[in-house]
Amino acid sequence: MSHDREAADWWATAVSRIEPNVIELRGRPVQDLIGGVSFAGVIWLMLRGDLPSPAQERLLEAALVSSVDHGPHAPSIAVARMAATCGIGLNNAVATGVNLLGDVHGGAGEQCMRLLADVRDRPATAVAQWRARDRYLPGFGHRFHTVDPRRDPLLRAVEQAVADGVVEGGYLRAAYTVEQQLHPVPINIDGCTAVVYAELGFPPPLARGLFVLSRSVGILAHAWEETGQGRRNKGPIPPTIQPTYTGPRRSGP
Amino acid sequence: MSHDREAADWWATAVSRIEPNVIELRGRPVQDLIGGVSFAGVIWLMLRGDLPSPAQERLLEAALVSSVDHGPHAPSIAVARMAATCGIGLNNAVATGVNLLGDVHGGAGEQCMRLLADVRDRPATAVAQWRARDRYLPGFGHRFHTVDPRRDPLLRAVEQAVADGVVEGGYLRAAYTVEQQLHPVPINIDGCTAVVYAELGFPPPLARGLFVLSRSVGILAHAWEETGQGRRNKGPIPPTIQPTYTGPRRSGP
Amino acid sequence: MSHDREAADWWATAVSRIEPNVIELRGRPVQDLIGGVSFAGVIWLMLRGDLPSPAQERLLEAALVSSVDHGPHAPSIAVARMAATCGIGLNNAVATGVNLLGDVHGGAGEQCMRLLADVRDRPATAVAQWRARDRYLPGFGHRFHTVDPRRDPLLRAVEQAVADGVVEGGYLRAAYTVEQQLHPVPINIDGCTAVVYAELGFPPPLARGLFVLSRSVGILAHAWEETGQGRRNKGPIPPTIQPTYTGPRRSGP
Amino acid sequence: MSHDREAADWWATAVSRIEPNVIELRGRPVQDLIGGVSFAGVIWLMLRGDLPSPAQERLLEAALVSSVDHGPHAPSIAVARMAATCGIGLNNAVATGVNLLGDVHGGAGEQCMRLLADVRDRPATAVAQWRARDRYLPGFGHRFHTVDPRRDPLLRAVEQAVADGVVEGGYLRAAYTVEQQLHPVPINIDGCTAVVYAELGFPPPLARGLFVLSRSVGILAHAWEETGQGRRNKGPIPPTIQPTYTGPRRSGP
């Protein structure tokens, strides 16, 4: 094989075909998508290769809408606001926030999808086994909300989709099973969106990926608001409050 | 003012109100948005504080759809694919790609909005003045496409919105003015989306912000595809091709 | 030119030569550097292509040591600590902090080097011209320290190097000129390190580059300390303090 | 406890004490460190709280020097070069590279330290057990070098330190044990630096942290060289080579 063919194959992709005056996304000319498919529809297309049905698209939109923001207490939001005051681009500020959406901050959706798959297959025993390994189950419990206002509309939307034959419902039933066994610990937003993404057939790592797309909106909105406030080098607390120093003191004069 | 009030004010925001069992985005309960507003509609809400009309929303969707991907030649796409092979999270891979969407890679939309505003206000003289300062005008010309397939559907959508009284049309006319004067250099995708965002009333820095949200979709799709291919520590070219060394040679044997 | 040659040339570099069983940095076998050259010496080598004299190396070490940390009030430090609680790698936490070292947070050194070069060349007029453009001069003044404890040891080290004929002294004299004209506004750490880097012959953008290498040490130390404290999803303020909400209230009951 | 005390405690640290006109690093006034302690010495101080002996410092310098660069084939280097062509700051380019130093790219040092500790404690059985779990042992084998030129000078330096009573030698013996059992698979640079860091008493996660500090030098040098070459939006391969498209074709005309 020639070296230039090697370099071309090194970057082989089925996602898009870009040639002079040609842009195809998953085999579809971009000009057929502009004006014809929603942003959420193109998210589905790019990740899966086909277009969603209207009912699938509505469900995806509901999940994407639900997790855009959780205020300045969320590390992803706070660091983007601080970044916006340091003389870097708005894109760099958003990247700073997205970088924090790891296993602990948003990653619970990915882990919850694995839990729900397990509970669906072994409803009698899975929850106990997961709890034996870890006191906290991913997607359940919140340090802040006792009833998350996003739970009911999201789970109701999935119930409707089950009734309409759009999705099968096995993951939703698994979520209810876990909720019952953990009562009064409620399902949280990571859990609710995990139900949606699992019912729609997304693989677990894309729960995190879709959360990234959703939360990027809140990160951008907060970074943009901060830009308008004009602070420079914003620290986490006002300069009048000194961090407590817990280290050694210099001995003697 | 007490210190705790200072700390609360340090993080003051009008974007969202988060209290136990309450999540409001721009003053609207999140449960009213889930299922009722599209993802693009919530993007508008979060950045501007109100909801778009259906016609405004369609125009925003068209622009967001148009710039999701430009293949592995785009640095933002390539670095995210490489990142995905280095044992870091999918969120870290997306952040790596987004971090590159700076003044040169995506930032042209922001600069083009300033150009269009200037041409709209001074159609007779602005283009010549911009060209005197820089040979390249932001949002015009492409090293790859002679006719970008995204131009016609985007500009036609704006024309329709002008005809329907949805937008005023001043930025669209400015874009046509620049195209005429630069002929045969065509408007590119940064220019076309700049027309949309300007007509919809977004401030220039948000052209970059909206591009970040759009391109994040392609970045995620490519990072995810790369994950499935199983490479580890993917370099930019195959290991059989050695970078040319142009530095000093060790003297002597 | 064949395509494989093109791909090799696309990645041409004079920084290092890497071939099977061969690693040369700036033309020097790495095995000759290990054990023979200090870390600071290799920093100089990699950025400039030759090795520093012992006196040059001491001066570089002094500047690198001086700016490693400025505590949790510094955005770069705070965001890295928050990142370390989100389930991402220590490298991702350091990258998050480094990403914030932009034009406002650390970039002052780069701008100060340009100021000092101008004052050196036009001592009578440059300061007034810079002040006419901007009230604040880069590298001078601090919101926190009236006398920065790093000023005297750094400037004294440069004075000694001038006396020893190691550096010329023009930038140091320019710094004193500015200090006199701004009295009582003192030179700050960005200004002091700018003097060192300028006297040593580094181009202005590398003032920011060297600051990045220096501050990375503090960022890593803080991220590592935070890891040991075991918090998850650390926000900027304790959860008991709610950010002030300044947006619209939902109307009606 | 008052809220302001809470906010101060939220950011408690033993790393540094920053008060007006006071900067202490690990309890030592910064003015005593400038000019008196090397950059490598301050790295040790910041991570561990005390200063190294001259012999410990030499060993740390040797390891830091050894891994600064591995050329444009290394993803960390390549993405930083590409980032430098996208109109973002030099700090953002370095952060982009550092972000990639994850479990697969540099993280092997951390894992190798755990392997060496296990082999040191159970020399007869540990290697076989690790190999039963994974074909590749962290820190051993290289796809490129059959004999890494950095091995001998690093291991010789550790041997000397053992002879001088500076370090104990248990991790070095463990490394030789693994090399013997894997013959002819050699120890690689991650393994050699893991020996150094383990002998010096660093905990495993700091093997990755120290690698980040070391590789940042090469990342900066390459990003800076790329800046000087003037490319804009540098992709991974020349624009004349098209990535192979492996997806669906649009059917019919």
What is the topological layout?
The structure is a homotetramer of 253-residue chains.
Chain A: H1 3-10, E1 16-19, E2 22-25, E3 28-29, H2 30-33, H3 39-48, H4 54-66, H5 75-83, H6 90-98, H7 108-121, H8 126-133, H9 151-163, H10 170-182, H11 189-199, H12 205-229
Helix pairs in contact in A: 4-9, 4-11, 4-12, 5-6, 5-12, 6-12, 7-10, 7-11, 7-12, 9-11, 10-11
Features:
homotetramer, 12 helices, three-stranded antiparallel β-sheet, 4% strand, Cytochrome p450-Terp, domain 2, 253 residues
Description:
- Four copies of one chain form a homotetramer.
- By secondary structure, chain A is mainly α.
- Chain A has two domains: 15-52, no CATH class; 68-235, Cytochrome P450-Terp, domain 2 (Cytochrome p450-Terp, domain 2), CATH 1.10.230.
- Chain A is built from twelve helices and three strands; from the N terminus they run αβββααααααααααα.
- In chain A, strands 1-2-3 form a three-stranded antiparallel β-sheet.
- In chain A, strand 2 and strand 3 (28-29) form a beta hairpin.
- In chain A, helix 4 (54-66) packs across helix 12 (205-229).
- In chain A, 59% of the residues are buried.
- The interface between A and B is large, with 91 and 90 residues.
Shape estimate of chain A? globular
- What is the C-level CATH assignment of the largest domain in chain A? Mainly Alpha
Spans where pLDDT lies below 50 across 5 or more residues of chain A: none
CATH topology of the largest domain in chain A: Cytochrome p450-Terp, domain 2
Query: Which oligomeric form is depicted?
Result: homotetramer
Q: Largest sheet of chain A, order of strands side by side? A: 1-2-3
Mean pLDDT of chain A: 94
The sequence of SSEs of chain A as H and E is HEEEHHHHHHHHHHH
Largest Cβ-defined interface: A-B, 91 and 90 residues
Beginning-to-end CA distance, first to last residue of chain A: 74 Å
How many DSSP E strands of chain A? 3
Helix content of chain A: 40-55%
Q: Would you identify the CATH H-level superfamily of the largest domain in chain A? A: Cytochrome P450-Terp, domain 2
